[in-house]
Amino acid sequence: MRDQIETLRLCIEPFSCDDVAASFAWFSDPEVMRFIPTGPDQSMGESKQRLARYIEHQARHGFSKWIIRERLSGQAIGDSGLLVLEDLGKIDLGFRFARSHWGRGFATEAASAWVRAAFVDFDLDRLTAFAHPENLASLRVLQKLHFRSMGHDRVMGMDSLVFSLSAMEFQLLAGSPAAEAVHSRGLHKPR
User: Fold this and answer.
1) Could you give the domains of the chain?
2) Verdict on whether the full-model pTM lies above 0.85
3) Angle, nearest 10°, between helix axes 20-27 and 44-61?
């Protein structure tokens, strides 16, 4: 099973218990967590519990939310990954970054790598993504990755726009000029 994803600028790997302090920096930031149904973590203890849930999910499914580090510096800058939403019967793609790393294309880079991993490495049939209607940055990322809008829904108590991408759609896009443009910008490291 895959235990690391590398892109041109990022190294994405499963969380460990040692990542609590670094991840608390963005898990506790009200602006970063503004569109997350649970809101910001109020203590390191809450972040420790969050990571424990991600680590358990990883053991059960082979994927989860993973920590993102800049490749050059090794600095933890956010998290991204896939979560099985048991109640909804869906696999959710999510991403978030420390505010100091917004606006640099990292979300598109990480999410693009996860889409590829989901369909190529984990052999999933479909991904879903949920975004608050006011979360314009996330909506742009999902649009760039060719997720289709499936309408509005209430997800985990939050008004959400629902998006979907199937493995078949991914395969059709993989040879398209749009997909080639993404690859040519260096968002995927050759395997």
Assistant:
1) 5-184 (3.40.630.30)
2) yes
3) 110
